[in-house]
Design goal:
Blueprint: E1 16-17, E2 28-34, E3 38-47, E4 52-62, E5 68-69, E6 72-73, H1 76-90, E7 94-99, E8 105-112, H2 119-124, E9 138-147, E10 153-162, H3 163-175, E11 179-185, H4 186-194, E12 202-208, E13 213-219, E14 222-227, H5 244-259, E15 272-278, H6 287-294, E16 300-303, H7 322-325, H8 329-335
Parallel strand pairs: 2-7, 7-11, 12-15, 15-16
Antiparallel strand pairs: 1-11, 2-3, 3-4, 5-6, 8-10, 9-10, 12-13, 13-14
Amino acid sequence: MSEVVPSTHSHKKGFFTLFPTPGFLHISRVGIALSDRAVHLVEFRQTGHRGDLTLLTAVEVRLAPGLIVAGYIHDKEALSKVLSDLRIKYGFDFARATLPEEKAYVFTTQVDKKPFDSLRDRVAFTIEENVPVALSESVFDFDIIGDTEDKALVKVAVAVLPNKAVEVYLKIFEDAGITPISFDIESQAIARAVILTGDTRAHLILNLSEDKTGFYIAEDEVMQFSSTPAYGTRQDDSGGYPDLSNLKTEMRKLFVFWNTRLNKMGIPQKKIEKIILTGVGANKKNEGFLSDLMEGIDVEYSVANVWANAFSFNEYLPDISFEESLSYGAAIGTALPNKEPKYV
């Protein structure tokens, strides 16, 4: 476990809000990210008239192998115990948290812009034609991307999860004595952490781990595509990377798909301009792997700064190594202050 302390910024609303946020939670913000391998917790405190962020805690708890697999919880009681122990040790009762990418569906669509007060209903009617989950059995939220060429329509990015998946995670937290204020999908939280507020370019985020990689595309500061193939940074007995070729193939296919999009008038859409590498697989020990992965990719790329929207390194250096921080992107992103919503 590691504990820390930092300072400033803001980003967006959670996947869905479960309860109105008590006033004191605007001061203290706990973010919890659950993955197959670990639980990550961060706590920020907002101070001063600017609402500068101070990082109070950054903790990693490794999970027993097989406790969570691809977002499926095999031992609910054990996971609740881990969360309960964290709650007791660090003294919090409310948290913002992430839900597993494997359980979620993300798509973009266009709906009539007006009337605005029934926009959510119009988005709801698009769910069953885009994902294999019945509207009555799902939980969803959406972000407004912006206007379309047809000024009567608005483009939105929709995130959908099956009710049952959300209920399982909700009960895990409640059994641990934690009230979840809101949930984010992992990709949404990571994007909020690593893409600097105001940068509307199309970014490809690679969330690298040993046995899987999250491919996330965010454009106009909104997560619009997510895929998590079971290819990672693992090495075989000879020191080679058996998944490297498959990862390069997946990345090339994604570039072709995204960079050849046309709107309804036949005009090319934004192309991916930057790749951000994050997750435990993006650390220095995998430098050779990352170099091979990026070979032949004619796009700017960099290892993530997971604190990009929390504080400036010119003002503060957190007491946690850069390499270690790469695992905290989702927890940081879900804990960050809300971004101002877009209106149409």
